[in-house]
Amino acid sequence: MGPKILLTNDDGVYSNGLWAAYEALSEIAEVTIVAPATQQSAVGRSISIFEPIRATKIVLNGVTAYSVGGKPTDAVIVGLFALDIRPDLVVSGINIGENLSYESIMTSGTVGAAMEASNQGTPSVAFSLQVWDQGDKFDDPRHCGSSFDDAKKVVRDVCEKILTRGYPGNADVINVNIPSHLRGGYEVTHLARKLFHTGVERRLDPRGRPYFWINGPLVEDAEEGTDVHAIRKGNVSITPITLDCTAMPANDELRRLFG
């Protein structure tokens, strides 16, 4: 028996990115898809605890998959505990749009699913593909115009290395971002602080009442060594992430403050 992979995402079970990952991974492992039924981008590690979760077995492209009526975290939990898949690796993606910086990974459903898997004791990798047209992030993920050719090669190569050589120690999640035009190689990075220049646009509805859009352009670049800078150079960014958010360097100062 070969290795087992649970494949999920946050763009939904019909996303082109999910099926590109399936094509890449099914050549090296037994892959089971358990993914949200609908678009769930930017929900982070949200979990459904006030409503029931339904998981429906469907067949797409001749492949059996599970469509989960909930969040990416729900899909991972259903896959691990209800369907009892017991994978060697959980893969989340390929997300349509990059997940870079502190700002992005804290809200990303793609990274959130990988974090949940790791929290439950299963190694995980999150994959995201840069898009130059930001509208692609909000269009129907079944019809994304981006090419997944380079991304499929990266997904297979990264997962094959991890499955054969072992998961890196001291990391809980491996966050991989792939440039839309791959010009370089792999670069191990750390998280940049920001991905967007945050803004809020005030508008009026037809009745003259105000409403707001949270928006803002992408940051132009970040310092050397960050995930944002690597992608801007055309490299594949590989960032180890830990679930432990404790700010250890602040301990001494807090002890002085609170005795």
From TrEMBL:
Write out the annotated subcellular location.
Cytoplasm
Name its co-factor(s).
Answer: a divalent metal cation
Q: Cite the HAMAP family for this sequence.
A: SurE
Any one GO cellular component localisation term in the record: cytoplasm
Q: Which family does it belong to?
A: Belongs to the SurE nucleotidase family.
Q: What is its EC number?
A: 3.1.3.5
Listed binding positions for a divalent metal cation are 10-11, 41, 95
Q: How is the cofactor bound?
A: Binds 1 divalent metal cation per subunit.
Q: What is this protein called?
A: 5'-nucleotidase SurE
What keywords are assigned to this protein?
Answer: Cytoplasm, Hydrolase, Metal-binding, Nucleotide-binding
| Purpose | Nucleotidase that shows phosphatase activity on nucleoside 5'-monophosphates.
Its EC top class is hydrolase
State the reactions this protein catalyses.
a ribonucleoside 5'-phosphate + H2O = a ribonucleoside + phosphate
* InterPro entries, sorted: SurE, SurE-like_Pase/nucleotidase, SurE-like_sf
